[in-house]
Amino acid sequence: MSAVRAKRYIIDTTLRDGEQSAGLAFTSDDKYKMAMRMDTLGFYQIEAGIPALGNVEKEAILRIMSDKKNTLISAWNRMNRGDIAHSFDCNPDIIHISAPVSYVQIYSKLRKNKKWLEKTLFDCIAFAQDKGFRVTVGLEDASRADESFLIALINHLKKYDVHHVRYADTVGVLTPTRSGEVINALTRYTDMDIDIHVHNDLGMAVANSLVCAKEGAKYIDCTFFGIGERAGNCNLLDFLHASEPIFDLGVDRSKAKQVQNEIKDIVLGCN
Q1: Per-residue pLDDT tens for 76-110?
Q2: d(C-alpha 271, C-alpha 268), whole Å
Q3: pLDDT tens figures, 157-197
Q4: Of 242, 210, 238, 244, which is closest to residue 224 (Cα–Cα)?
Q5: Is 90 exposed, middle or buried (0-12, 13-18, 19+ CB in 10 A)?
Q6: DSSP alpha helices (H): ranges in 68-169?
Q7: 83 burial class (0-12, 13-18, 19+ CB within 10 angstroms)?
Q8: Phi, psi torsion values for 13, nearest 5 degrees
């Protein structure tokens, strides 16, 4: 008798982080067509874009929201009310707020402190929730952040009814060993579902994502073709292949390959 596979969920970020690949610029029609194909696959969530970029981005997200049938749609935001107000115009299922959590980001880049970060983040969460939106939080540059600070922050976020948090390896420095250690710690010491978002700078995005899923990360961010900023993100088809014997992802790999072939011309046509 075969063992029951653990349940994990795919978050596709092709339309957001994937578009940050050098030379890529999707039109509103491109995003809509790709999202409609992705909507058939059983993804938990599609990260559709960044409303603060302007009306073209908003138009794409509104069209996707209007016609999608199966998948939750999220809009990505920086940690400020202005961005979030733009997301209100798109009425997404989820408003995602990205918070810089490494000391490099907080103290050196922004010239702020942890108290400012927490106050601003909690204010943004309340701003979105007051309008009735489900909120998720991204821990930007988490792989260079202090682990004890992350644990304390995540436990605080749970009190704010944040749905889940994204641990983002923004600069692509994680290895499988370190990935497993940190996700093990976060799942052990917090009562929060974790989403893992890794970049492929060291060629280990799929391996890192697989280890994180084994250690308890519930959501895994992927992109078609592995596209994304710099060296890209976790390659969807490669992750599906590697994880098939271990996890129930609710996504048929052969169907995902077919969709990738269908959107290939769109992606190549943007170069």
Answers
A1: 999 999 999 999 999 999 999 999 999 999 999 99
A2: 6
A3: 999 999 999 999 999 999 999 999 999 999 999 989 999 99
A4: 238
A5: buried
A6: 81-88, 103, 114-129, 147-159
A7: buried
A8: -120, 25
